[in-house]
Structure formats: C-alpha cells, structure tokens
Amino acid sequence: MTGPRLGLWCDGVPRRALVLCGILLAVLLAAPLALNSYLLSVLILVLYFAYTGQAWNVMMGFAGQLSLGHSLYIGLGAYTAAALFMHFGINPWVGSLAAMVVAAAFGAAVGYLAFRFGIGGVYFALLTIAFAEFTRIGFDHFPWVGGAGGLFLKVVGKGRFDLLHLRGSAVMFYYLLLALTVAAFLLCHRLMRSKIGYYWLAIREDQDAAQALGIHTFRYKMYAVLLSSAMTALGGVFYAFYYNNLFPEQIFSMERSVEIVLGPIIGGLGTLFGPLLGAFVLTVLAEGLRDLLSALGLALPGATQVFYGVCLLAVIVFLPDGIWPGLRRLLGLDRAAGPGPKREG
C-alpha cells in the first residue's frame, strides 16, 4: 500500500505512533516463535478480547450507545457458523457471512425498538441484556443445536493447518485472530476520520444538539449497532471453531458480555488502542491470579470476577479516562495539531 492510499490510513498520525505500531505488530507476528503453548493460549485470549472489545467500542465508545448484552452477537455468530458447518458441511467462511447477517438482523431489531421509541441510556442497556437472556433461553430448548446439552464440533489433529475449514493448531488461530484484530483496528481508525465518525462523536456528546444540526441520529445510531453486531459475530465464529464446544448458559451469559466490556473501559473508551491495552492488562493479570491461587492450593470461586471489579473500580477512581490516554501522553503521541476528535488513538 503506497502513495495516496497509504495517506488515507495514516493521515494525521504522528511518525512516532507509526513506528510504535510497527514494532508492536512485529512483536505480535514473532510471538508464537518464542512462546510455549500456555502463553500462546493467553495471547490468543488477549487478541480475542481486544477484537470483540473493539467491536463493542464502535457502539459505545464511538456512538455512545451502552450495550451490556453483546454476548447475544457472540452466541449468534458462534452457533450459526458452527451449526451450518456441522449439519450441512458449509464452509466456515460462508458460515461467517451468514453469522454476520443473523447477528446484524438481531442488532437491527434491538436498535429499531430502542431508537424508534426513544429508549436510551440505562434502559437501552437493559434492553440488550433482555435480548441476550431471551435468546439464551431459546437456545437452551433448541434441539437442532444441542439445546442445554451443548453443540460439539469434531476436534482435529493439533498439527493441521486447514485455514479453509478453520481446523488446525493454536498457531493458526493466533494468526487468524491477529489478522482480524489488525483489520478491526484499521477499520475503526478510518471510521474515526470519516464523516460517520464525526457524526457518531456528535451523537455521543449531545444527541439533541446533533439532531438540531441536521444529523439523522436514528440512521447513524443504527449504523453503529449493525456494524458492531456484525463484527462481534465474527468473534463468535472464532470462539466456536477454536474451542469446539458451545453451551447457551456459557456463551450467552452476562459474564461473557462483561468480559467484552471491561477491556475498552479500562483501556480507554472511544480510543483505538484502549481495547487492546485493556484486554492485555486484564487477561494477563487474571491468568496470573489463577496461577498464583493454584500454586498456593487455594480454591476461591469468583476470585476472577472480584479481581475484574477491583480493576474497574481502580480505573474509575484513579484513571477515569482509562489507561491509554495517560500512557499516550507519556509516550508523546498526542496530536500536536490538526483537526480530529479528542478520542483519536
């Protein structure tokens, strides 16, 4: 990518930021060469939460629409692609397109009901939770996908590298998820610098003022919901083919939604690097806590959830804007000049 096309993506980005992005990408590309299987699985979790956090960030961080039921789209994406593959042998990539359509359709239903009747704020959040719960109950009693007993995909040899059918080793899934995360990062960067990104920012900051300026708030909020739900569904497809088992109680749970939400909030809501940084901090520290408790021979149910709560409380009190904005200033990556939303980066 050279010339004018490169300028579209790098316009206004400080050279130091580009260099640091290049170094980070190089480290991530080389990571599987130096990590054992356990550490690689932790890094896969980091990228998974970074990607799904970026997808959620589109709806809340960019457009200001609080969703606490994003497990709905994870579950729909996972079940759609996995069921089509298991029952009909449909290629997972084709299944991914179907998964995105199904998730976007549910997102459209949630968005239309909320925005058509003026439901916002905490009530919109409750509506998203309700949809996730209704869907969980429905899948619990849906025998075609295994019901409460779960849906299982055939586990293949760890040495395979069948990207076409998403059957293979952890290394394959790592690079696949890294590609998805980078693609989501670039897409969100482009959106933030586009007209729709500025409209979302206006709606997030003051919807009434945005409407008074002539912005079609209903339409642009729907765009955010559709894009966020479709992106999240892709994360669900990855989840299904990486773990090879799906249970409604697990994948549609409120806990799954909270895991998605925490990364962007702790890292920096409405920023590009926030979801990645938040996912890294939370996942690494949570896995470290589990290892420590295991080494001490302690069984403390709910310890991870308590840890998440403590992290969230600490960020709210000491870093209300998240970790990334302060780190960005420390690294000297703030814009010296030029237009653009304050949330850039």
Task: Please describe what this structure looks like.
It is a single chain. The chain is mainly α. It has a domain at 35-252. Helix content is 72%, strand content 2%. The chain has helices at residues 3-10, 15-34, 37-62, 71-88, 92-116, 121-140, 170-192, 195-205, 207-212, 217-243, 248-251, 254-267, 274-295, 303-318, 323-330; strands spanning 151-152, 161-162, 167-168, 245-246. The strands form two sheets. Strands 1-4 form a two-stranded antiparallel sheet. Strands 2-3 form a two-stranded antiparallel ribbon. Strand 2 (161-162) and strand 3 form a beta hairpin. It is globular, with a radius of gyration of 20 Å.
Keywords:
two-stranded antiparallel ribbon; two-stranded antiparallel sheet; disordered N terminus; 15 helices; mainly alpha; 345 residues; single chain; 4 strands
